[in-house]
Amino acid sequence: MEHKINPVSAPSPSKRAGEGRPSFSIYDASAGSGKTYALVKEYLKIILVAPKNDAYRNILAITFTNKAVHEMKSRIVGSLSEFAKDEPSDKAQDLMKDLLNGKRKENNPEEWSEEPIGLSIIQIKTKSQQIIKHIIHNYAAFDISTIDKFTHKVIRAFAHDLNLPMTFEVTLDTENLLIEAVDAIIAQAGEDETLTKLLIDFTMEKTDDDKSWDISREILETGRLVLNENNRNEITHFQDKSITEFVEIKAKLTQACKDLEKQTIVFAEEALTLIDKNGIDVKSFSRGTFPNHINSIQQGKFNLKNKTFHEFDDVAINKTAKDRVIIENLIPEFLQILTKVYSAFEKINFYKAFLKNITPLSLLNTVSNELAKIQEEQNVLSISEFNAIIHREIQNQPAPFIYERLGERYRHFFIDEFQDTSEMQWQNLIPLIDNALSGQDDFGVKGTLMIVGDPKQSIYRWRGGKAEQFIELSKDQNPFNNPDKRLEHLDKNYRSYSQIIEFNNDFFKLLSNEFEHLDYKDLYENHSHQKTNDKTGGYVNISFIPKVEKTECNSEDSGDEGTIDKTDLYVLATLNTIQKTLKQGFQYKDIVILTRKRSQGIAIANYLTEQGIPLLSSETLMIQNATEVRLIIHLLKYLKNSSDLESKANFLQYLAQNSQDKLLIHDFIAQGMALFQETEFENWLMSFEVSLSFQNIRKKSLYEAVETIIAKFLFPVLSKGKGDLVVNQMDKACFIESNKFGYMTGGNYSHLSIDKAKAMRKEPTHAEKVLWMEFKSKSLEDYKFRQQHLIDDFIVDFVCLSKKLIVEVDDEYHFTEEQIQIDKNRTNTLNILGYKVIRFTNEQVVKSISDVLNKIKEELILQETFLNSSSPVIAPSPSGRVGEGNAYVQYFLDIVLERDIRNQAGISDFLNFWDKNAEKFSIPSPEGTNAVRIMTIHKSKGLEFPVVIFPFAEEDYNRKPKDKLWLNAEEQDFGLPKVLIDNSSAVEGFGEEAVEIYNQKKQEELLDNVNVLYVALTRAEEQLYVISNMNLSSKGEIPKNNMCSFFINYLDNKGEFDEDKLEYEFGNATKLSSAKPHIDTSKTIPLVSEILNPKNIKIAQREALMWGTHQQEAIEYGNVIHEILSFVKTKNDIDLAITKSIENGLITFGQKETVLNTIQEIVNHSELEICFAEGNEVLNEQTIIQKQGKSIKPDRMVLTKNKEVLLLDYKTGTHNVKYQQQLENYQTAIELMGYKVAKKVLIYIGKEIDVVNL
Known about the structure:
Blueprint: E1 24-29, H1 35-49, E2 59-63, H2 66-83, H3 90-101, E3 103-104, E4 112-114, H4 121-137, E5 144-146, H5 147-157, E6 169-171, H6 174-187, H7 193-208, H8 216-227, H9 232-235, H10 243-277, H11 289-298, H12 324-362, H13 364-378, E7 380-382, H14 386-394, H15 399-406, E8 412-415, H16 423-437, E9 448-453, H17 467-474, E10 485-490, H18 498-511, H19 518-526, E11 539-544, H20 552-558, H21 563-583, E12 591-595, H22 598-610, E13 615-617, H23 627-640, H24 645-658, H25 665-673, H26 678-686, H27 694-698, H28 702-714, E14 725-727, H29 732-739, H30 751-762, H31 766-776, E15 786-791, E16 794-800, E17 805-810, H32 817-832, E18 836-841, H33 842-847, H34 849-869, H35 886-903, H36 907-917, E19 932-936, H37 937-940, E20 945-950, E21 964-968, H38 971-974, E22 978-982, H39 992-1017, E23 1020-1028, H40 1043-1053, E24 1063-1067, H41 1089-1092, E25 1097-1099, H42 1110-1125, H43 1134-1143, H44 1152-1163, E26 1177-1180, E27 1184-1185, E28 1191-1192, E29 1196-1199, E30 1204-1211, H45 1217-1232, E31 1236-1245, E32 1249-1253
Parallel strand pairs: 1-9, 1-10, 2-5, 2-8, 6-7, 8-9, 11-23, 12-19, 12-20, 13-19, 14-25, 17-18, 20-23, 30-31
Antiparallel strand pairs: 3-4, 11-24, 15-16, 16-17, 21-22, 26-29, 27-28, 29-30, 31-32
Helix pairs in contact: 1-2, 2-4, 5-14, 6-8, 6-13, 10-11, 10-12, 14-16, 21-22, 23-24, 23-28, 24-25, 28-35, 43-44
Binding site for ATP: 29-36
Domain UvrD-like helicase ATP-binding: 8-497
Region (Disordered): 1-21
């Protein structure tokens, strides 16, 4: 075929990957500048030119979100796939052209900035085919991951050295761990005397300051210090301090404040004595200012915020004063005294500022220890501890040793979004990278590092990501021994139309004047300008909401400064903007609304929903809002407390709307609410074909209880005419035999089966032990396996839950014909539940572990591919009808399972957890839905949208910062080198060093806020709308430190601003782009109840559905009746027994009437009526151990009050004399126990009931 690509003269193909590249490349990539393209291109260069097809094994690419990982992997694999085709796509051909032709330096065309790869088109095609094939077969080695995943991999490799359990789990839920730790600390009040006194004193301090007595929030903030990387260095100074030591320090500080206050009074009296001693008239001082100042100090009323005296001229003297010369001679002495006074007050204020924080700080160790204890108990490790562990324990290990443990040796590193990399994460990576950059591989290729980032998009300082780190690297800093370093600026914006690019260029260059810090100023003055692309046009709109006039009326109704009215104006302006863009031809899905705060997004979402605007936001996708999830929660609340009428009413409303059509909704709810006895309520529900036992559900584990609710109410397709699905597996004898091997528990996660699983974990076979050690080592670190784990009614050897893969290891027992059939049936059932099962023999595992692991890896990758390609289309579930909300239910089930396994949570514990955390969980946003998106600016990072609307653009930067400040202290004063104080203007009174720290913090906060604004204003492709508020004073002054001033200054600089004009336009408000076709990569999977509702798949203990032949039908029917009768003690138990039988899968709902009639016929039989009467003790299936050690188990024994026994035994099939002999043996055993057998009855159960009295 004929290609469009015309490669220029290129270097020799003998050039290896990395030879033409600098060892250390830094790409400064502004918004929309194609950083992912640059990363992929450099990655492809390495693997295409490398002599081997598995060069990707030696590359580690790191980014920060799973979505970014997916994008990078998809781009690389997609590019290779296109290169391998005869006719690559246009995009692939453009990329191939860049690879073939390279790139010349703009300022020196004779030199390369990017050298060509030196391959022909055919060579690229052939090589791509080979690499793709290799990646498919070794996908786990295709190492592109999040930095947290890589860190986890390192920790897992060193788990033994770190004394971590091999089976530890990673938790992202650090906040809840902290809350548990704080609750545990407060619960210790009354036990530990020192802790109790501290907590009480802290509570009293808060109430004295007119604050809430609840101290948990402050202690929680202390806990966050422990886990926040930004404070790691400082808190090391406190980790060896006990509560007692802190109490002593607090007492010293308090006393020091009192002593200093006394000193100031002494100093003031010294100054007053000088005035009196020298006969100075106080009226000689202008307005008496100076003596009044001294008196205020002497009386303890002085504040540093008042006027102070530092210079000679500060002491004003009346021109007519007769003692002027005397005063002037004493001024130096007065100033010297006051210097000591001011210094003392600075110390007092400094100590008091620390005293405000010392009590929660004194609990630092207590919180840390409690947190460690909880993690150990739950066998979890908080992800926030990863970096610290590596930094403390692993970082200083020799790089070759670390590589050996990892089982990989990386030669090339790619780090995406470097501005978000924390300092500790970077320090942890340096040794590995330095090792690679310092040497060459077997082919003489040097290692490389490519860093891509943008310090202007650094918005995660609160978790350790600092723009300064990138800025320093972009200048002279180089942490590596290899000096070969190059900085590249990606300065062309491929995302936006020209009008938006030009607006941002002008806006942020002007904004650079807000900075005093030279690096920050340079960042926006010289590094924010971007070149335009070939997309000309676009539109920018800056508008201001009308001025809110504060009146007495709206002041009372709306709270602070008319906030509610202002919010109404913002949401109305947002709606008008949406309607304006729709008229231009944009669709809802083209529009995104960005807000700084979540509360602002909620306000907009509520209003737009009322106006009928389709929306997608984290709120609309929260699983707590799904009808199905609300039903489950209401039912769990009812199960916890049957007196919870609100939950009961909500449950009934759901049933009224979805599961019955006999009554009006109101009548149905009213009837159900009138039934207070639970048994009556259950019987009433039965009349609407809703069969359940609340008591039985309460006995289940949390996960089972939720599964039962889902099976009963959310997927009724099984009970609407189809009946329950019953899997015919084995008869009773086979069931009992298989239980020896942990195959079926018969109790669905009962305590018996849990204990059985635990016991089997403690006594693995040799082969199981070998495979388990491989799972826990480096072999399959990307996949988490569980050992001897319960799956429905089975205990499986090993399972990877995330990939639904089960691995069984079989000994010779499994080779018998009978067991082969059992295994086959078991596998079929597990397949129905959605699991893939693979089996190995003991011999295979022990002798060929490598082959076994390779096979498992292949299956895992296949499962991953299958699960990814089978992900269901997710849609909001407003109606609560079957199938529409299954994505919400599945996610909810995942949460329940995690709480059940990790915390052994019951219903009550889970509901407490849910009350605190429900709003955190939402399903992923579906692609292609025609709805307006609402998201915070932070969540929009890395995304782009045709139309961006940015309301509430008036953030006040003067608000009190959340962060506190660490200041240096004189350690000799109280034994601490650092102190923690509130970040406020008071810091400016604590000395020059404190002022410097305070000002640096203010500049950092300004940079972070401007960076957030940069992210917001660079998301737009075609149109950008900013909605702000002028906030002008009554004199028309522009507010300081408010975001709105940035827009006003920009307009003023353009000569456009007029305070009476509310809207400013740049460009033409015309839609220029054509609609992008949405490529739907998801697949809609029809509802498969057998998989989504595994609890509806019951293992038939009697093959009730085998009632086919007349003889077999009678036998099996009899067995089922026999089983149900074991639940019946008196006539009153019949209904409950039937319900239990349906729940256990023994019979289907459709068989209920037939079975009920048979049971009633037996119970009400004239010969048997006395055996089911009330007032007697009944023993069903009671084992009796005889003297000789043999045991018997009569079906039913009725013990009357006069020690007589009525003996019943149920049989199936034809009459047989051996049954009579069996009953006589029972009689002999019972009479040896001192009872008299008054009646012996054989009951033959078949098509008809035959009662035989003996």
